[in-house]
Design goal:
alpha+beta, Immunoglobulin-like, 6-stranded mixed beta sheet, about 25% helix, disordered N terminus, disordered C terminus, Ig_V-set, cell adhesion
C-alpha cells in the first residue's frame, strides 16, 4: 500500500512540475497547479487512511488505483462463473472533491479492447439488448461510492472485460471520466449442482427434504422440480407436499416408511436459456426390527433346527433365550444389506417343554416372536390349518387322470363287446348257407345219375 502511495505521490508531483493536466474543460495553467496540489495532499491522506484501516478480509478487491484524482478498486483477478448463474463485479470508486457524480455506466469490451459497448447505465433504460434487464447496481446510490454490479442469467458470450465510466459535473460543467482498469469475467459451462439437505429419516416420523439452487445472487427465480424412483424402477410412488420458498429453495415433506429405503430422490433446477442442473440423493430410512413370517423351527429325530430372520436399519441383532437352558448347540449367523439370519441347532427329547422365542434388537427398538415348531412329516402350511398347494394339485391331477382312464376302459369294453357279437352272427349264417348248398348239390347229382 505504501508503494502505491509513493507511486501516486511521484505521479502527482510530476504533473505539478509540468504545470498542466489533461481534462476536457480546464485550460488555465495556474488553476491546474492549484488543483494538482490539492489532489496531491488529498491522495496522500487517502493512502494513509486506507493503509491504517484496510480490512484484511477484503481480499476480493484490488489495491486502489488513481488517475487524475479519480480512484477505483475492482475485483481482483479473473471472475469465473457458471452459465445460467450470476457474477458480481465488486467495485468502489472515489473522485475529486470538486466533482459531482450524477450517473455511472458499464461497458463490455471486445477481445482487442479497442471497441467497448455500453451494457448498463444508471439513468438510461436503453442499453445493449443482450444485457437488457440482466445488469443492475448493488447499491443504487452512487454517492455511497459503490459501483459494484451484478450480471444475472449468464451466458458464455458474456465472457470479456468490463469498464466503468462515471458521469457528473465539474466546475458547473458536464464532465465524465472513464477508469482505465478493467474487470475480467470468464463464463464457463454450468457445473454447479443444487444442495439437497436430507435429515435423519425414521419410519413413521414426518420429515422434510430441502433443495437449494446454486447462484443465490441471481434475481431470476429458477424452476425447481422433484422426482423420485427406486433402483431400476421408473414409477413415482412417494406421496408428499412440495413447497417452494424464496425462489431458490424448495422443500419436499413426506412420512418415510421402510419401503422408501434406497429410494433415489432428484432435485432438478432449470434456469433461463435452457440451462439446468440436478442433484440426486439416496434415502437411508431407519426402522425398528421386524421378524419375518418365514422364521420357524423343525423337529426331526429329536434334533431341533430353528431359523429367525429379522430386518431393520440399523442392522438388527438376534438372541435366543432358549440357549440359556442348553449348553449343547450350534449357532450360525448370516448378514446381507439390512437382513440378519440366525440358525440354531440343538438336541431335544421333550419338545412340549421347549419354548422357542426369537428376540431381535437395534437402536430403535426390540421385538420378540414365538416360533412355530413343526415335525418333518408335516408341512408348515398344514400346521396352520391350511392345505399344501403341491399335494392338492397332485390330488386333482390324479383324479382327472383316473376318470379319463375309466372312461377309456368303458369305451374299449363296449367296443370290443359289439365287435365280438357281429363276428358270431356272420359265422353262423355262412356255415348254414354252405351246408345247405352242398347237400343240395350232392343229392341232386345223385338223383340224376340214377335215372340215367
Amino acid at each position: 500500500m505504501f508503494d502505491t502511495c509513493a507511486l501516486l505521490f511521484g505521479q502527482n508531483l510530476l504533473h505539478i512540475s509540468q504545470g498542466f493536466i489533461v481534462t476536457e474543460d480546464e485550460q488555465a495553467t495556474f488553476f491546474n497547479i492549484r488543483v494538482k496540489m490539492f489532489v496531491l495532499i488529498w491522495s496522500i491522506l487517502l493512502c494513509l487512511v486506507t493503509a491504517s484501516s484496510a480490512d484484511p478480509g477484503a481480499s476480493a478487491m484490488t489495491e486502489l488505483q488513481c488517475f487524475f484524482g479519480f480512484c477505483i478498486s475492482l475485483s481482483e483477478g479473473e471472475i469465473t462463473a457458471d452459465a445460467g448463474l450470476c457474477a458480481v463485479i465488486h467495485c468502489s470508486f472515489t473522485f475529486a472533491p470538486d466533482f459531482e457524480v450524477s450517473s455511472a455506466a458499464w461497458y463490455k469490451c471486445n477481445q482487442s479492447e479497442i471497441a467497448c459497448r455500453e451494457i448498463f447505465h444508471s439513468k438510461k433504460n436503453k442499453v445493449q439488448l443482450h444485457f437488457r434487464g440482466r445488469v443492475s447496481l448493488l447499491e443504487p446510490d452512487l454517492n455511497q461510492r459503490n459501483c459494484s454490479i451484478i450480471i444475472n442469467d449468464l451466458d458464455q458470450s458474456d465472457s470479456g472485460t468490463y469498464q466503468l465510466r462515471v458521469n457528473g459535473s465539474r466546475n458547473k460543467g458536464p464532465y465524465e471520466f472513464t477508469f482505465k482498469p478493467k474487470a475480467s469475467v470468464s463464463v464457463k459451462a454450468l457445473t454447479q449442482k443444487p444442495t439437497v439437505e436430507v435429515p435423519a429419516l425414521t419410519e413413521g416420523q414426518q420429515t422434510t427434504l430441502t433443495c437449494t439452487a446454486p447462484g443465490l445472487c441471481s434475481e431470476s427465480d429458477p424452476n425447481i422440480t422433484w422426482t423420485w424412483r427406486r433402483s431400476a424402477e421408473d414409477d413415482s410412488y412417494i406421496t408428499g407436499n412440495i413447497t417452494t420458498t424464496h425462489g431458490h429453495n424448495s422443500s419436499l415433506t413426506f412420512t418415510p416408511s421402510a419401503k422408501y429405503h434406497s429410494t433415489e430422490v432428484t432435485c432438478k433446477v432449470n434456469f433461463r436459456g435452457n440451462k439446468s442442473t440436478q442433484e440426486t440423493v439416496t434415502l437411508n430410512v431407519t426402522w425398528p426390527p421386524v421378524i419375518l413370517n418365514s422364521s420357524g423351527c423343525i423337529n426331526q429325530s429329536e434334533v431341533l433346527t430353528c431359523v429367525c430372520i429379522s430386518q431393520s436399519i440399523p442392522l438388527p441383532t438376534i438372541r435366543w433365550p432358549l440357549l440359556d437352558k442348553h449348553s449343547n448347540y450350534s449357532l450360525a449367523y448370516t448378514v446381507s444389506k439390512y437382513t440378519t439370519n440366525s440358525t440354531v441347532i440343538l438336541p431335544v427329547k421333550e419338545l412340549s417343554s421347549t419354548d422357542v422365542q426369537c428376540v431381535s434388537t437395534n437402536d430403535l427398538g426390540k421385538v420378540k416372536k414365538n416360533l412355530i415348531i413343526r415335525t418333518s412329516e408335516k408341512s408348515f402350511a398344514q400346521e396352520n390349518g391350511g392345505f399344501s398347494a403341491i399335494p392338492l394339485t397332485v390330488t386333482v391331477v390324479s383324479l382327472i387322470v383316473n376318470i379319463l382312464l375309466i372312461v377309456c376302459l368303458i369305451f374299449l369294453w363296449n367296443s370290443r363287446k359289439k365287435m365280438k357279437q357281429n363276428q358270431e352272427d356272420q359265422t353262423y349264417l355262412t356255415v348254414n348257407i354252405r351246408d345247405i348248398s352242398s347237400d343240395y348239390e350232392v343229392i341232386t347229382r345223385r338223383v340224376s345219375a340214377s335215372v340215367d
